[in-house]
Write a structure and sequence with these properties.
With 149 residues, the chain is mostly helical. It starts with a helix and ends in a 6-residue tail after the last helix. The radius of gyration is 30 Å and the shape is elongated. It comes from Halobacillus amylolyticus. Keywords: Membrane, Transmembrane, Transmembrane helix. This is Tripartite tricarboxylate transporter TctB family protein.
Amino acid sequence: MKTIKMSIPVLLILFSIIFLIASFNLPKANLGNPNAPMYFPAGLSIIMLIFSVIYFFQELKNIHKENQYIRQILSGRTPKLIGFTLLFGAVYAFIFNPLGFLLSTIIYLGALLFYINGSNKWLVNIIVTISFSFISWYAFSELLGVSLP
């Protein structure tokens, strides 16, 4: 992906340089200013070259930022959070049919919130778990008419 992102501005830079060289090789005019035919294409190619160089440096900057984001994601507590969220999601999918939507959602969301927030915020975790589960159940089953197991 990085190669594709960087190849586009490089191609634009090469194209603008070729276009600039070709515009200088245009035939001279017989009437008026002899260099007049090359002004417009040369100006366009110079503008395109400037914007292509700016685009190139922006892509370099974005790639550097993406590398920093990936390092931040893979450091600290984040990999554990991702792993446990996937594990809780798998357990949720396993218990969804036997226990039903409401009970399995309460268990899943409660476990996830207690893992993320810790037991210090137990009241907030319980309120969010129960209210979200009942509101989503009510919205799907009563308002939208979707039957939940």
